[in-house]
C-alpha cells in the first residue's frame, strides 16, 4: 500500500504490536466499512489509463515516489483521497473502477476520471473521460456485483448505508468548459451567476441519485483555488494579482451555492448526513512551500502535465504543485489532514471526515 505502511511492516514485530495498541494501527478495523470516490483528476487513480485522452498520466515521472510507480494518479505519489483512505484506517487504497475485481469492492471503489465534470461535455476537448453521470452508472454496476457477493439485499443495503461517499468535482466545468470559449458555448449561454446555479442544480440531482442508491454519508468538496495554478496563471495572466481572480471568483460563486445546498440536503433528507469540505492549509504551512513553480517540467497533456520521462525536482516535499495543475503528495497530505480533522467551519461544515465517519 502506502510507502508509509510498507515501512511500517518492516519494523520489528514487538514494535508493531506496541504501535497497534498506541495508535489506530494498520490492523485495526477501518472507521467506516467502505469508501466510494467520485470526481476528477484530483482523485483519479487509473480510470483514464485506457481511454483516448490527453488527460492521463500512466507514465513517469508520475508515481515516481509511489511504490507501484505510475498508476494513473496525477501526483508524484498519493493523491488527497489516498491519504484520507489511510486516515480512515483502511489497509488498501480503493481500486479504480477500471480494474476493480472480486471482494475488494466491498470496501469501496474509485470512479474518478481526469478532466471529468458535473456536465457531460466538460473536458471533451482533451478526449474521452467519465463524467459524473457515467460514474454514477458505474456505481450501479458495482452495487449489483456487491449484491451478487453478499447474496442478500438487506445486508447489501445495510453496507451501502454505512459507507462514506466522497465527491470532488466542478473544476473542469470551469477550466475545461466555461473558460474555454473556443470549444464551449456555456459562457455565451449563461452569466457567471446563472452558470453556478445551473451547475449546482445538476449536481443536486446527481447527489440525490447517489442517495437513491443507498448513500447516507456524503463528503462534498468545494472547488479550490483554480486561479492560483501555474497553468491558469500562464494561460490567463494575473494582471498584477497573485492569482487569476476571475477563475477564483467564479469558483466562489459555485461554492457559495454548494454550501446552502448541503444545509438543505441535511434538512430534507434526515436519514443522511452531508458535509461541505474545502480544506486549505494554514498560511504558516504555505510559507514553507514553493508555490510559484512546478516540480516537474510541464508540456505534456494539454500543456499542464509533466513531460514524459522528464526529470522532476529532487525536493518534492517542498513544492505545492507537482505539475502545472495538480498538487504534490506533500501538499495532498496537508489537504487530507485538514479535511479529516479540522475544526475550522470554513474548511469543514458541519463535520470533518473523522466526525462524519463516527456518526450513526
Ligand atoms: C439477510 O441478512 C439479514 C441480516 O443482515 C438476515 O437477518 C436475513 O435472514 C438474511 N436473509 C437471507 C435470505 O439470508
Ligand atoms: C455553439 O453554438 C453554436 C451557435 O449557436 C452552435 O452552432 C454550436 O453547435 C454550439 N456548439 C456546441 C458545442 O454546443
Ligand atoms: C467570472 O468570470 C467572468 C468572465 O467570464 C468575469 O467577468 C467575472 O468577473 C468573474 N467573476 C464573477 C464573480 O462573476
Ligand atoms: C428541500 O425541501 C424543500 C421543501 O419541500 C424544497 O422546496 C427544496 O427544493 C428541497 N431542497 C432540496 C435540495 O431538495
Ligand atoms: C518564486 O518566488 C521566490 C520567492 O519569492 C522568488 O525568489 C523566485 O524568483 C520566484 N520564481 C519564479 C519562477 O517566479
Ligand atoms: C478539534 O476539536 C476537538 C474537540 O474539541 C479536539 O479534541 C481536537 O484536538 C481539535 N482538532 C484540531 C485539529 O484542533
UniProtKB/TrEMBL annotation:
GO cellular component: extracellular region
Alphabetical GO biological process terms: lipid catabolic process
Entries under Gene3D superfamilies matching the protein: SGNH hydrolase
SUPFAM superfamilies per UniProt: SGNH hydrolase
Source organism (scientific name): Theobroma cacao (Cacao)
Pfam families per record: Lipase_GDSL
Subcellular location: Secreted
PANTHER family: GDSL-LIKE LIPASE/ACYLHYDROLASE-RELATED (PTHR45650), SGNH HYDROLASE-TYPE ESTERASE DOMAIN-CONTAINING PROTEIN (PTHR45650:SF9)
UniProt keyword list: Hydrolase, Lipid degradation, Lipid metabolism, Secreted, Signal
Taxonomic superkingdom: Eukaryota
Predominant subcellular localization, coarse grouping: secreted
Family membership noted in the UniProt record: Belongs to the 'GDSL' lipolytic enzyme family.
Listed GO MF terms: hydrolase activity, acting on ester bonds
Lineage: Eukaryota, Viridiplantae, Streptophyta, Embryophyta, Tracheophyta
Signal peptide bounds: 1-28
Protein name: GDSL-like Lipase/Acylhydrolase superfamily protein, putative isoform 1
Amino acid at each position: 500500500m502506502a510507502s508509509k505502511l510498507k515501512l511500517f511492516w518492516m519494523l520489528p514485530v514487538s514494535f508493531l504490536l506496541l504501535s497497534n495498541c498506541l495508535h489506530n494501527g494498520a490492523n485495526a478495523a477501518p472507521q467506516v466499512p467502505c469508501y466510494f470516490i467520485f470526481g476528477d483528476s484530483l482523485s483519479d487513480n487509473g480510470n483514464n489509463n485506457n481511454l483516448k485522452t490527453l488527460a492521463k498520466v500512466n507514465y513517469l515521472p508520475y508515481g515516481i515516489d509511489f511504490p507501484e510507480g505510475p498508476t494513473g494518479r496525477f501526483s508524484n505519489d498519493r493523491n488527497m483521497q489516498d491519504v484520507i483512505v489511510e486516515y480512515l484506517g483502511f489497509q488498501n487504497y480503493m481500486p479504480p473502477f477500471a480494474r476493480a475485481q472480486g471482494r475488494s469492492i466491498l470496501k469501496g471503489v474509485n470512479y474518478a476520471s481526469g478532466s471529468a465534470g458535473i456536465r457531460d461535455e466538460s473536458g471533451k476537448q482533451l478526449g474521452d473521460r467519465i463524467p459524473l453521470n457515467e460514474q454514477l452508472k458505474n456505481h450501479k454496476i458495482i452495487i449489483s456485483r456487491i449484491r451478487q457477493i453478499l447474496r442478500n439485499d438487506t445486508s447489501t443495503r445495510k453496507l451501502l448505508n454505512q459507507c462514506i461517499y466522497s465527491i470532488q468535482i466542478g473544476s473542469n466545468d470551469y477550466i475545461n468548459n466555461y473558460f474555454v470559449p473556443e470549444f464551449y458555448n456555456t459562457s455565451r449561454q449563461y452569466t457567471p451567476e446563472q452558470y453556478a446555479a445551473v451547475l449546482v442544480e445538476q449536481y443536486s440531482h446527481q447527489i440525490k441519485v447517489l442517495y437513491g442508491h443507498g448513500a447516507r454519508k456524503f463528503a462534498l468538496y468545494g472547488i479550490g483555488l483554480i486561479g492560483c495554478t501555474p497553468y491558469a496563471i500562464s494561460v490567463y495572466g494575473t494582471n498584477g494579482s497573485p492569482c487569476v481572480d476571475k477563475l477564483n471568483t467564479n469558483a466562489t460563486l459555485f461554492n457559495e451555492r454548494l454550501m446552502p445546498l448541503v444545509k438543505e440536503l441535511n434538512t430534507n433528507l434526515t436519514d443522511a448526513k452531508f458535509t461541505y469540505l474545502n480544506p486549505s492549509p494554514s498560511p504558516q504551512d504555505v510559507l514553507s512551500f514553493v508555490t510559484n513553480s512546478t516540480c516537474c517540467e510541464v508540456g505534456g497533456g494539454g500543456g499542464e502535465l509533466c513531460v514524459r520521462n522528464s526529470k522532476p525536482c529532487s525536493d518534492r516535499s517542498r513544492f505545492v504543485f507537482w505539475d502545472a495543475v495538480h498538487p504534490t503528495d506533500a501538499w495532498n497530505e496537508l489537504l487530507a489532514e485538514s479535511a479529516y480533522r479540522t475544526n475550522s467551519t470554513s474548511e469543514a461544515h458541519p463535520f470533518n471526515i473523522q466526525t462524519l465517519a463516527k456518526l450513526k
